[in-house]
Write a structure and sequence with these properties.
381 residues, mainly alpha, DNA polymerase, domain 1, hpI Integrase, Chain A, 3 domains, three-stranded antiparallel β-sheet, 8 strands
Length: 381
């Protein structure tokens, strides 16, 4: 009986600097090999074990696919061995490359399996978005094939459903359709389907209005902080700390005392997985409970995103602030005020953990007082 194994094809490198993983079957000095659709780089390939190492961020997902192919190959070899058949390369090829008709198969079953595979390699928030998209699809159409999904006409109908029936906002719709495009592109790379028919389907992303508080409004919250009931006081401390530092909600929730060193916050950002170091000024330090200082202790007792936004409404009302503000607006507040008190753009960008300063530029809104003060410089000419 022949021999099956995986190997790295090193005579051709992709634009990303990766090499293809090849499935190879040898029988009676004849060879059949086929591209598995999986790529990695040499340092991440274990030749002896024929697996992809953790140096490749997507190793878990890729190894699962390789494992499934190995199971398929072993089954073909075993069935022929039991039947007493000689398994030449041509016979193996016919069985191994025989693919189901995914075009007409159930897309929901495929997506559910993809979500399971991606659980260990994607952020929890991304997995939630995948599940939300799947739920909306099932609500829209009880059965769906790859062939139906992979068309601009379906995208157009699904977009209309999310707009009219679900009353989704434009950017939510964009996210859902972008997820579907990603899944289709991955299916093409895995040779499950041959072509992406929706690449040219465009949905315009709308720049959201980024609400923020002014310095005077921050002072109003600071002023009432000692007199608030416990839940609102805790909410105010969390909100103000993010206004002072620019931290995201998720990073605040995960913040431990071991992340605070020499009046600096040092963390790996939850959203980007990038390290960030933020100096703490007096106002931020004053909000930290110094009595609770075990390295493993959480710095703040952070409520769920929904609860903290619910508590924020009466807090703002008591402070006499009548704006549509969510907890994430604390980050917008930090960025906008920082730029208006003349902290340089590149420094604010570093505080926020932005990889591109263009992202920080969206906060470069000048407050009316700032504009007036700048214009008054003409008086000195």
């Amino acid at each position: 009986m022949g021999k099956f194994r995986f190997l790295l094809r090193t005579n051709y490198m992709s634009k990303a600097g990766n090499f293809a993983v090849i499935a190879k079957y040898t029988s009676n000095n004849k060879v059949f090999q086929v591209n598995t659709g999986i790529e990695t780089f040499p340092q991440a390939w274990n030749k002896k074990k024929q697996i992809i190492l953790p140096a490749d961020a997507d190793h878990y997902n890729k190894n699962l696919l390789l494992k499934n192919l190995k199971i398929k190959a072993d089954k073909i070899i075993l069935e022929n061995e039991v039947a007493g058949n000689y398994l030449d390369t041509e016979t193996f090829k016919k069985s191994f490359v025989n693919k189901p008709d995914f075009h007409n198969n159930d897309f929901y079953e495929y997506l559910e399996n993809e979500i399971l595979l991606k659980k260990k390699i994607l952020k929890n928030n991304t997995i939630r978005q995948y599940k939300a998209t799947l739920s909306k699809l099932k609500q829209f159409q009880t059965r769906l094939s790859f062939n139906e999904l992979n068309s601009c006409s379906f995208f157009q109908k699904f977009e209309s459903h999310m707009t009219t029936k679900l009353a989704n906002k434009q950017n939510t719709i964009c996210k859902n359709l972008k997820i579907l495009k990603t899944i289709i592109n991955e299916a093409v790379r895995k040779n499950i389907i041959s072509k992406n028919n929706v690449n040219d389907y465009k949905v315009k992303y709308k720049n959201p209005e980024r609400n923020f508080l002014t310095i005077d409004e921050i002072h109003k919250i600071e002023k009432i902080l000692p007199y608030l009931p416990d839940r609102l006081k805790n909410t105010a401390r969390c909100f103000l700390f993010c206004c002072y530092t620019g931290l995201r909600y998720g990073d605040l929730k995960n913040l431990k005392f071991k992340n605070i060193c020499h009046k600096h916050i040092e963390i790996i950002q939850e959203k980007t997985s990038e390290p960030i170091k933020i100096p703490l000024h007096k106002k931020a330090l004053a909000l930290i409970n110094q009595n609770k200082s075990k390295p493993s202790d959480m710095v703040f007792n952070v409520y769920s995103n929904q609860k903290i936004n619910d508590y924020l409404k009466p807090l703002l009302y008591q402070a006499g602030i009548y704006k549509n503000i969510t907890f994430h607006c604390s980050r917008h507040t930090f960025a906008t005020i920082s730029l208006n008190i003349n902290i340089p753009l590149n420094v604010v960008s570093k505080f926020l953990g932005h990889c591109d300063m263009k992202t920080t530029l969206i906060y470069a809104k000048l407050l009316e007082d700032t504009k007036a003060n700048e214009m008054n410089k003409w008086d000195d000419i």
